[in-house]
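hiii, so i know i said id send this last week but things got crazy w the move. better late than never?? heres the sequnce for the chain we talked about at the cafe, plus the structure i predicted for it. fair warning i was half asleep when i ran it
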Amino acid sequence: MVDKDYYAILGITSNATPSDISEAYDKIKAATVSNNNPEVELAYQTLSDKQKRKIYDEQIPGSFDPSDSYLVEDLDTITATNKPKTLKNTLWSITKLALKVIITSLLLYYVFSKVPLQKVKLRLIHANYWWMLAALGCFMTSVVVAAWRLLSFFRSIGLKLDPKFNFRLYLFGLFYNLLLPGGIGGDGYKIYLLNKTFKLPAKKVFWAIIFDRLSGLWAIGLITVALIFFIPQIDIHFAIPFGIFMTGSVIYYFVAYMFFRDYTRHFFEAHAKAVLVQSLQVLAAIFILFGQDFHDKYAPYLLSFLISALAAVLPVNIGGAGAREAVFLKLTSVFPMDEGLAVFLPITFFIISLLVSLLGVYYVIRPSRLQEGLPVAQETNEQL
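okay and structure toks below
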């Protein structure tokens, strides 16, 4: 792995054409008193040679290292270096998958030791399936908006993807994240494919995905603060959580603007979409409650739903299964909620997300359809 960013040395982007490289090199030579700058010479010699540039791009500084993040699992699969997978890496992947299965099983055992599975099953059998269908439609709409939100962050780094391709890639990612927890992960595949096709430094794509996730967490925080106002059991003045949230939001934007300015180009637009995504998912939860002919207070269930969503983000189980239910169950001791309904709601939501995620299997079976309309690597430099 090389340790110099030759693009930065010449003052160009990774999408630079051969003429851009020559022009940048000539400008540096003209502006430099001494014509002997080994770094500039090496950078130019490497990037001006098609074969050398290809090799360099595969090892470009700043390429994504999944060991820095829980989003993906396999370093060698995501980075462009073609190193063989070692026995150590294989054993580690198997161990992580086994731990996720064990943790998920323990969480579900805890939940169903408190609330019998038969009780949840009866609720599902006697549910109003028209409302369940409405919840499914609402969640599917939230997925469409979530893909649209991610597109905003991609646009911030100059990545102009076809919206249809972006949506297919998003569905593919949902399938991998939820149903193949031992693989590289859907986010990892996005990084791999976009880096390979558009020759963007993988860390750029990585941070776009990170900010997409952060926008979702921010939206959960906003709606959570709003719901606190409707729950008398939380004996604090509304101004306190609201003030904390607003202060955190200002700090969040300040840090993003100061250190990740590229990603703030469509910042407010993307976060508005994030609020819409989470609102649609909360609406899906309301429809699930409607399907149970529920007529009590909704706020405790919806607040618990959002809190449990935060627990589901942690990469310690399979698709959030068990974590949502366990958090809901614990919160029944804090808020006035029926235990059976408190377990039924997150389980039903998981089933709905599972059904939508299964749409991504089509692109696993037919990968050519996933990449339909995606330009080949040689063409992308001209398009970006």
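btw The first helix runs from residue 6 to 10. thought thatd interest u
miss u guys!!
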